Amino acid sequence: MRALLLLPALLLLGCPPAGNNGDDDDDSAASSNLLAMETSLGSFDIELFVDDAPNTAGNFLAYVDSGFFDGGDDEGATVFHRVVADFVIQGGGFTASGTQKDTLDPIANEASDSGLSNTRGTLSMARTSDPDSATSQFFVNLVDNLFLDPGGSTADGYAVFGEVTAGMDVVDAIGTVAVNGEEPVEPVVILSVERQ
Q1: Which pTM does this prediction carry?
Q2: Which domains does the chain have, with CATH numbers?
């Protein structure tokens, strides 16, 4: 089973911020907390909560900047490998061939510190039962999943670090694809993730 478990069959799965190269134009883009994610089913925009969840947002940006999600690292693009209707879409760990990509070290869970909630359209880090095990995998909440907040299903909760600001219709479309179990029958590939 490729997907991480997410709580009782629901446990959801994340590294330091990357630097920039000193070019003024690149400095502006490199400091941006606004992203555009293009998938094989369309694009959506993301705002990262860099002030409320700095370590988690920085971790996500490290993967973005290295080309991890979209295959810019020459290791293959990742997919949304887990889709549960009216719950979440989860991606950022496996390629379309089912290969799990090597990740950076796990990060500490900021869910309790951030004060953010797993509401519809927010991005959170997937993890194992260990609260501090998140690496690259993330999920987008398709509905309000407040039971994923600290004190809900687990004392530590799942760390929210961003939200979809445009293109939620694309996220919803991904959430309704045909699945075999929880895995999309046709891969939903992350084609690009770019800072705006």
Answers
A1: 0.87
A2: 33-195 (2.40.100.10)
